[in-house]
Design a protein that fits this description.
With 312 residues, the protein is α/β, with parallel strands linked by helices. The protein has twelve helices and eight strands. β7, α7 and β8 form a beta-alpha-beta unit. α8 packs across α10 and α8 crosses α11. The N terminus is likely disordered.
Length: 312
């Protein structure tokens, strides 16, 4: 998850140059007829929504909890209603999107998908178990993508018999708004899979950056130390949360400060990413602040459950 500084001319030129490089090559992805998304949290729902709304491809949303998938459909209906009210889409288009999204509570429901994007919890064991199941269920040519924000693609791919088909697609939160997708090939990822994944992300209206399979990739490798240091300042009582956020928002021309951003991402998610970074690099700058750990231990996960650094 990254909120960039508002564009200045040089930054804009660089962005346009990068965009042209990532979208210039035409790759045929007509064989991708159906997309699967695993996980009905905010990331999974955002990915499913954009896939159906922008690419007009059928989407199968999978979560083991029927309650969660039902909530997910209700959430996406609200997004569609808002987009219709803002004249971003027509009511006819919204109805078509509703028809494109189906749900399942069993992995077997993903058997006919051509691309599966996993957006489950940021936990290696959970992701490996999911990919072992996908390896058994999905057809031989299916692309198996993970939305992990920090975990090694190569490690996840090793849980399958087809690591060449596994790749990282790190979307930014909120997915319907943020334009970036980090595309991360693992050690064995086939170049055809890489190019098709980039083409799919572009078809979803995103700009791609290709990143080496390192802990945290680029976005979170840079973002998490920034958030962690903000917690250090808060823990040291050098400034209030409000003053920390106001200083960084107005002082660096960002849309929001680091602590409110952490609440938006999810404090539990931030902590999980920092732990992956610290465990895999040994660099002390990634060691999670004790205060962040305490908040998560207390169940304060941020905006998604009503309490984090701030109360919602």
């Amino acid at each position: 998850m990254v909120f960039l500084m508002r564009s200045r001319p040089a930054t804009l030129r660089l962005f346009q140059s990068t965009r042209s490089m990532t979208t210039s090559a035409k790759v045929n992805i007509d064989h991708i007829k159906r997309v699967g998304v695993i996980g009905s949290g905010q990331m999974g729902l955002g990915i499913a929504y954009v896939a159906a709304n922008v690419t007009q491809l059928p989407v199968v949303l999978m979560d083991i909890s029927k309650e969660q998938t039902d909530r997910g459909i209700a959430f996406m209906n609200k997004l569609l209603e808002k987009d219709v009210a803002k004249n971003k889409i027509t009511a006819e288009h919204a109805n078509k999107v509703r028809e494109l999204i189906t749900t399942t509570n069993h992995m077997d429901g993903l058997a006919q998908t051509d691309v599966v994007i996993e957006a489950a919890s940021e936990n290696l064991d959970i992701k490996k178990a999911i990919f072992r199941d996908l390896d058994k269920i999905c057809h031989a040519e299916a692309i198996l993508a993970t939305n992990t924000s920090s975990i090694s693609i190569t490690k996840i791919a090793a849980a399958t018999s087809r690591p060449e088909k596994v790749i990282g697609m790190h979307f930014m939160n909120p997915v319907p708004v943020m334009k970036l997708v980090e595309v991360i090939p693992g050690l064995a990822t086939d170049n055809k899979v890489l190019q098709e994944t980039k083409a799919l992300a572009t078809a979803m209206g995103k700009t791609c950056t290709q990143v080496t399979d390192i802990p945290g990739f680029v976005a979170n490798r840079l973002l998490m130390p920034y958030i962690n240091e903000a917690f250090m300042v808060l823990e040291g009582q050098f400034a209030t949360a409000e003053d920390i956020d106001t200083t960084m928002k107005l002082g660096t021309n960002m849309p929001m400060g680091p602590l409110v951003l952490a609440d938006f991402i999810g404090l539990d998610t931030c902590l999980a990413i920092m732990k992956v970074l610290y465990e895999n690099t040994g660099d002390s700058k990634y060691r999670p602040c004790v205060l962040l750990q305490k908040y998560v231990d207390a169940g304060w996960h941020g905006k998604k459950n009503g309490r984090g650094v701030y109360t919602y």
